[in-house]
Design brief:
Helix content: 55-70%
CATH architecture: Orthogonal Bundle
Strand content: under 5%
Distance between the termini: 39 Å
CATH topology: Tetracycline Repressor, domain 2
Largest sheet: none
CATH class: Mainly Alpha
Number of helices: 12
Structural class: mainly alpha
Order of helices and strands: HHHHHHHHHHHH
CATH superfamily: Tetracycline Repressor, domain 2
Number of strands: 0
Low-confidence stretches: 1-43
Number of domains: 1
Shape: elongated
């Protein structure tokens, strides 16, 4: 399974949380990373060490500023060893994404097979919550890619080669909604693609808004936002009668 997203997030950065209080670990129930470089020992294989170091360094410095030399240093290996495992920084970037999917990514992967289970509203609410956490971390990393034209073009080429990209998230959510349509739990006249754009686009815009306005943001609390967003979506999804 190719990871569906453009930018990865593994673990979290406490400095990001400080910049956006409404998106705190408590309010979004963010879990700290399971493994950090400092916690690894000599038994951890080299590839895993490099992947973890790449995630940590890119979260800390952004994709543009992160260098393979710094990633190798954080992993405790030589830069030559890093290139023995990965041909480029971009390839390392995508490999780190696929090796450690976030809760949001894992939920997207599992969604289509879970059609018919529980309530559609509950499933969408959980997806929206994890999307806020995901976008909170990926916006800073993604911005550094978009700010560098050469880096962006190389990254786009690699995404095309691997069949990855942010559109995959929308495809997976839409596939889930189509399955629910077939089960009679979503209205047949609703366009799943439009609903997927509505939900994920709103989550991305919410996080961008809070980053842009800082501590004085007028954005509603995350739990209020997700509740109202899902209520609006379900008003269009629920079968009539």
């Amino acid at each position: 399974m190719v990871c569906p997203l453009l930018w990865p997030v593994a673990g979290y950065s406490s400095r990001m949380s400080e910049r956006s209080p409404q998106l705190s670990e408590r309010s979004l129930r963010v879990k700290p990373p399971v493994t950090r470089i400092a916690e690894m020992d000599e038994t951890t294989d080299t590839r895993t060490r490099i992947l973890q170091a790449a995630r940590d360094v890119m979260l800390e410095q952004g994709m543009r500023r992160a260098t393979t030399r710094e990633i190798a240093r954080a992993a405790g290996v030589s830069e030559g060893t890093l290139y023995n495992h990965f041909p480029s920084k971009e390839a390392l970037f995508l490999a780190s994404l696929k090796s450690h999917p976030t809760e949001f990514v894992q939920m997207l992967i599992d969604l289509p097979s879970r059609a018919g289970e529980g309530k559609v509203a509950d499933r969408l609410a959980e997806l929206a919550r994890t999307a806020l956490v995901h976008y909170r971390h990926t916006i800073p990393i993604g911005s550094s890619i978009l700010a560098d034209r050469d880096l962006m073009e190389r990254h786009q080429a690699l995404l095309r080669e691997q069949g990855a990209g942010p559109y995959r998230a929308n495809e997976m959510l839409a596939a889930y909604l189509r399955s629910e349509q077939e089960a009679g739990r979503v209205r047949p006249d609703v366009d799943p693609d439009t609903i997927s754009y509505m939900i994920l686009g709103a989550c991305l815009q919410y996080v961008f808004w809070t980053y842009s306005t800082g501590e004085d943001s007028f954005a509603p609390a995350p739990e209020v936002f997700t509740r109202e967003l899902v209520a609006a979506a379900c008003s269009m999804l629920e079968p009539r009668g």
